[in-house]
Amino acid sequence: MLLELLLLGGFAHAIRTSDQKKAKKNHKKISPSLYEDMKKVVKNVDFFGQTVENKKNEEEKEANRDLAISTASFGIATAGTLFYPPLSLLSVPGLIYVSVPIFKKSYQSLRKNKKVDVHTLSAITAIVCLLSGYYAIGNMAAFFYVLNQKLLLKVKRNSQENFIEIFNEHPRFVWVLVNGVEVKTAFEALEKGEIVVVNAGETIPVDGTIKEGMASVDQHILTGEAQPVEKGIGDQVFASTVILGGKLSIQVETAGEETIVAKIGHVLNKMDNFKGNWQLQGEKLENKTVLPTLILGAISLPILGPMGAAAIINAHFGYRMSVVSSISVLSYFRLMSQNGILIKDGRALELLSQVDTIVFDKTGTLTLSQPYVGKIHSCSDYDTGDILAYAAAAEYKQTHPIALAILEEAQSQELSLPDIDEAEYQVGYGIQVTINQQLIQVGSRSFMEKEQISIPSLIKLAEDLGHQQGNSLVMIAIDNQMIGAIELFPTVRPEAKAVIDKLRKCQIKSMHILSGDQEMPTQKLAQDLGIEHYFAQVLPQDKAEILDQLQKDGKTVCYIGDGINDAIALKKAQVSISMRGASTVATDTAQIILMSNLNQLGQLFDLAQEFEKTMTSSFKMMIVPTVIGMGGAFFLNFGLVETMLLKQTGLVVSLGNATLPLVKAQRQKRIGI
């Protein structure tokens, strides 16, 4: 008996220590931010749960106390059995103390639910052990009961929903225009009708209408649009969107909890939390087999007598299914986190193997935020290299995605950039610099029209065609004469096509793209990636409706998104996945976060299938000793000791099987496979 206990503790210790050593070893190999994110999921997950956070929780304190008492009582009973029998009597108070909650839960189940459960079996076993003097066996059963409750509490804590309040992160103050002067004002003091001033690089704090200024606004986090939107006087802007270039004076229409983004947060908080009510697969199997076990025990009573009937009841695997499933979940948590996949909800592991439909949000999931230079259009004597060089020189100090794309292309072509004499960051969609006493103007069509620069029909046609395909144009002029334009294409994640192909080899039957972009670019992306279904110009609230329809058609849906506009859809899907670097609301809502790239999606589904197989085989390993024990009680005169030892053997073997994938993965990494 002590050997089985030591083996059990050894498995848990191996999981813990190997993870700690691996984390220390890999600390220098991964970025500090990734290391910290991973630590949030795997830090201090001890077999006995001795963490600072858990000690602050009353439930954890109670579980730790019960486990300590049960361990001490079991040790005394075992010592009494081996060396001095009267010593075992000292373990009776501890056994009774730990068993009281079992009796209470069994009574409550019978009184409130009018049914028996695993607590009933445990209560019967405890009573028989106390009356028959099997104190060591009784304390062993009590120990595993407490350990089971401890592990289930740990898993459920890991899977609790992290509900968010969007505006916990609003700015502490904003700049309000008062009699032509910008006055620093507390965010909470904002009132409808006031004018808020927002500069380039800042997040718009309110919903409102532009009263002065022009700007390029990135609002993909809210609407899903891939390209920045040009905003001017009279246009509406929304909280949580970002000004890439320009300066705006915005008249406040709604602030705080009345904004569009806050209303999305309210929808999330009001949705049913199905994650908090799930039961482990082991618990379900336990409860389904309790009544048949009691019936079999009753039938065997006149045949085998009281002790034989008790052996039949004791042969039931009891809480051990839950123990094994808990260990399996925690093991795969670690295995996936070591591969840069963070699992926030253990239920997602079970559901992933059932997923047959994947829905991708387009922007930020299948495409990257930074575009790339696809074409350079010339409408003058300047060649494409000169046009790119002038644009790169003007954008040299900028850090927004468009500027980075232009600079990256200039670097790849090894262009020598001319020196800038002076720069003027235009209030609006462009920039002006002086190079060799020439005025270089770089910006959007609206910027050029504002500067009264004539746009050739060739460039207008290129822009119209580009917009239909989801592309955008940056125009370049010298001394108020257009010389050309740079066409920027959305950057599809390089790994996207391979990931889609891999998923087709799994159980995934259909894939869909949801996008706030126009029809043509969405259709083109779907065709390029080989995805058969797509929805374009989709509003945030429509995404959830589309998922709802798929689910009504009998589909099990996995949704992958990264913006505030994806949050309701993430909540609606059976399995929700977000990318690292996504909006806070997306990562808070998603059950799973991919920390590196989309390649991890295929790996995730592989591990989910492996998890399902491991759980199935582990459960079989638990059921076999139960069958042998019940058969042995009928034909081999097995008693409580034999059935208990069989159950512990099944537990040890099942735990070994549950932790084997993690052990194998760590061994492969050590030898460099």
What can you see in these coordinates?
The chain has 673 residues and is of the alpha+beta class. The protein folds into 4 domains: 2-162 and 273-346 and 602-670, no CATH class; 166-270, Calcium-transporting ATPase, cytoplasmic transduction domain A (Distorted Sandwich), CATH 2.70.150.10; 349-366 and 493-590, 3-Layer(aba) Sandwich (Rossmann fold), CATH 3.40.50.1000; 369-491, Calcium-transporting ATPase, cytoplasmic domain N. The strands form 3 sheets. Strands 1, 2, 3, 4, 5, 6 and 7 form a 7-stranded antiparallel sheet that branches. α1 runs parallel beside α23 (640-670), α6 (118-132) runs antiparallel to α7 and α10 (281-315) runs antiparallel to α11. The longest helix has 37 residues, at 599-635. It is elongated, with a radius of gyration of 32 Å.
Secondary structure elements and pairings:
Blueprint: H1 2-26, H2 32-42, H3 52-55, H4 58-82, H5 92-112, H6 118-132, H7 135-158, E1 173-178, E2 181-186, E3 195-199, E4 207-218, H8 220-223, E5 229-231, E6 236-237, E7 242-254, H9 260-270, H10 281-315, H11 320-338, E8 341-343, H12 347-352, E9 357-361, E10 367-378, H13 384-394, H14 401-412, E11 422-424, E12 430-435, E13 438-443, H15 445-450, H16 457-468, E14 472-478, E15 481-492, H17 496-504, E16 510-514, H18 519-529, E17 533-535, H19 540-552, E18 557-560, H20 567-572, E19 575-579, H21 584-589, E20 592-594, H22 599-635, H23 640-670
